[in-house]
Amino acid sequence: MIVDAKRSISLGVREKRAAVAVPTPAPAPGTAFPPRRLTLRGAPVFELGLWCGTCPALLKRMSEPDRADLEVVNERLNAGLGAVEADVLRAYGKVLPKSQYSALLLDLTPQLVTPGSRFDYFSHEQVATWGVDPVVGSPEDPATPYYRSFETPVGPEQHLYEFIVPMVPPSWNDDDRVAEYDKNSRATLPTAVAYSLLDVIQPAMDEGHDYYEHWVLTHFLLDGHHKVAAAAATERPVRLLSLVDERISIASPDELGLLVGARSGPRRARV
Question: What's residue 184's pLDDT?
Fold first, then answer.
């Protein structure tokens, strides 16, 4: 469910000063699209899908940063947010790249997914629409566990998939801190924070056996790795402040508006 939402908020600093960013370089000679990579403190951490509305989603770990959480306004987040708060947005505006953002405060229940498992989007739903990667003859491999948290139809031929991606593998989490958040979450929902992207994508040609438009909402955790791990381990909800970068998302303003309505509805698997 959506607890609160605010659209098109101006936040951020120059890309070179931002802790997290998705740079937009010019394409290399002879190529149609430049690489699309999420960086943390200047280092590329994830390879993302190309700047292309017909290419499949891609999420592939490139490196593992020394630190995961940015540790911004920790006390406020640990107490749990009840709404999208201006002071929290101002604090995160100092580490985000300059852009327009949709701020979504969500309650969700994460499920840890291992690449290649029966719950892996890249091995199943994506393959059903795009087929396997023709270069390697296999599905895309994220090279890291991630969390699935929500899905629902957006329209008759559109379906939303939501992922939470930790900056470091969940195996790096401190078990004592996970247990502490598990205990505290029984009284209140602590809040995690993510830099998020919405990519609306569909193959140019109908070559798969399940052809439709995929809406892929990916939350890259900036704070709350242990909170999300505790929620996944106990199958209980966690609250997430999602800061959706409207400029970097492969989605139109109208599609970003529809996201709020879709995310407010019930969770429903694709039939």
Answer: 67
